[in-house]
Design brief:
Elements lengths: L5 H9 L1 H4 L6 E3 L9 E3 L3 E8 L5 E7 L14 E6 L11
Antiparallel strand pairs: 1-3, 2-3, 3-4, 4-5
Length: 94
């Protein structure tokens, strides 16, 4: 299975209201440069998202390659992880 590139995820995240069926209320938090606030690692990219209805902050984890032992078996690579505290993004630029 080929996963999307980070650039493809960024494009999809920028139009979250059009691309998210069940999470259409989430919008990316943008940094000073106008780009979505994100961090990436060996197998995923995590975007900082905000619920426009409640103001809560979420982390949206999107896989960029298969993870050994991954629970993602149905081809869905985006995964809403959990509500996070702002301090969890302290190392990410805004």
């Amino acid at each position: 299975m080929n996963y999307p590139l980070i650039s493809e995820y960024i494009e999809a995240i920028r139009a979250a209201e059009d691309n998210f069926k069940e999470l259409a209320h989430l919008r990316p938090v943008l940094g000073d440069d106008g780009q979505p606030v994100m961090t990436s690692g060996n197998f995923a990219v995590v975007f900082k998202m905000q619920d426009v209805e409640t103001g809560k902050i979420y982390a949206l984890k999107c896989l960029t390659k298969r993870q050994v032992g991954s629970l993602v078996a149905d081809g869905h690579s985006g995964h809403l992880h959990h509500t996070i505290d702002e301090s969890n993004f302290s190392n990410m630029s805004q």
